Amino acid sequence: MTGETLIAVEGLSRRYGQTQAVEAVSFTLKRSQILGFLGLNGAGKSTTMRLLAGILAPDAGRILINGTDLLDQPRRAKQAIGYLPEQPPLYRELTVDEQLCYSAGLHGLDRATRRRAVARVKVRCGLADVGQRLIGNLSKGYRQRVGIAQALLHDPPVLILDEPTVGLDPIQAGEIRALIRELGRERGVILSTHLLPEVQATCSHVQIMRAGRLVFAGALAELQRQRQSACLRIGLNAPPPVAELARLPTITQVESLGGGRFRLRHTAGVAPTQALLEQARADGWELWELIPEQASLEQVFVELTLGRETVE
Q1: What kind of architecture, by CATH, is found in domain 231-294?
Q2: Spatial distance between the Cα atoms of 191 and 220, rounded to a whole number of angstroms
Q3: Is the CB of residue 51 less than 8 Å from the CB of residue 58?
Q4: Is the torsion defined by CA of 19, 24, 30, 35 positive or negative?
Q5: Which fold has domain 1-80+156-227+297-312?
Q6: CA distance 303 to 309
Q7: Cβ contact 279:264 at 8 Å
Q8: What is the mean pLDDT of residues 10-34?
């Protein structure tokens, strides 16, 4: 059922020695959502994925998978999860069919159910024609497909994918993203990545991590709205001292661009346009250019992940 909550995380924390890898992370995942975990390397994405998959135990917090507490009932909770680590656990000396049959057995599927499950995931993941190929002879893109197929064998409602397109060429990455979008129509999917284009191409929702904490959580459309103008670029024939421009309302920073041009950073969504026009007219600044600048998604991402503003 669309909108059904499949994962609920409350106050999740994990420390490695003196390093706080994940701190007080809370979020939900609903069916038909594809949630992208974004962040720079070391932000805590992979640790969060391993906590959700039950590979690591949290120092604090609670994880409910399809209504089951992962710590209290780990076996039942993990039955609802399909997990693809960054390096898929594959045996290079096995064929695709042998690998999938072996993995289905690990999930406890009986022989008849195992055959049906293997046939189903091979079709779903585009592996129907490579069943007799050795894993070691497959391209990295096809090995990723086998990894995803393994995660789907027991038909879980939740998929957790850690860097699913890392190391793939553009064509392979596009094929894997299309597969993830298809799988996300009937499941809840979480994928971690450090690539903004990956999220834009695949995800409906996004969470951005910095130093183990969530600094943004919401729909991708909400992140798009953060692109609203936070800068004005102006040109003046008779510019005043920079300090005078900085006194305009809502201005947070003034950057001189040379030739009488300036970039005025202001509180997001509160441009001082009217005050600027009035002041320029009153003091004879001879305003000849006034252009709102819209931040790119890359700039928004950098601001959130590095905790600072960027310049063009």
Answers
A1: 2-Layer Sandwich (3.30)
A2: 14
A3: yes
A4: negative
A5: Rossmann fold (3.40.50)
A6: 5
A7: no
A8: 95
Mean pLDDT in the chain? 91
Q: In the structure encoding, which two tokens stand for residue 134, read together?
A: 């050795």
- For the chain, the three-class secondary structure string (H helix, E strand, C coil) is CCCCEEEEEEEEEEEECCEEEEEEEEEEEECCCEEEEECCCCCCHHHHHHHHHCCCCCCEEEEEECCEECCCCHHHHHCCEEEECCCCCCCCCCEHHHHHHHHHHHCCCCHHHHHHHHHHHHHHCCCCCCCCCEHHHCCHHHHHHHHHHHHHCCCCCEEEEECCCCCCCHHHHHHHHHHHHHHCCCCEEEEEECCHHHHHHHCCEEEEEECCEEEEEEEHHHHHHCCCCCEEEEEECCCCCHHHHHCCCCEEEEEEEECCEEEEEECCCCCCHHHHHHHHHHHCCCEEEEEEECCCHHHHHHHHHHCCCCCC
Which tokens belong to 279? 């002041």
Q: What is the pLDDT of residues 203-259, one digit of tens each?
A: 999 999 999 999 989 998 887 776 666 789 999 999 999 999 999 999 999 999 999
User: Per DSSP, what are the bridge partners of residue 63?
Assistant: 9
| Cα–Cα dist 49/84, whole Å | 10
Q: What is the CA radius of gyration of the chain?
A: 25
Task: Tell which residue, 267, 259, 256, has the closest CA to residue 275.
Answer: 267
Asked if residues 199 and 36 have their Cβ atoms less than 8 Å apart, the reply is: yes
- Spatial distance between the Cα atoms of 214 and 38, rounded to a whole number of angstroms: 10
CA separation (Å) from 75 to 39, 70, 146?
A: 30, 8, 23
Q: Exposed e or buried b for every residue in 16-34, given b needs 16+ CB within 10 A?
A: eeeebbbbebebbbbbbbb
User: Which amino acid appears at position 221 of this protein?
Assistant: A
* Percentage of the chain modeled with pLDDT above 90: 78
Q: What are the sequence ranges of the domains in the chain? A: 1-80+156-227+297-312, 89-154, 231-294
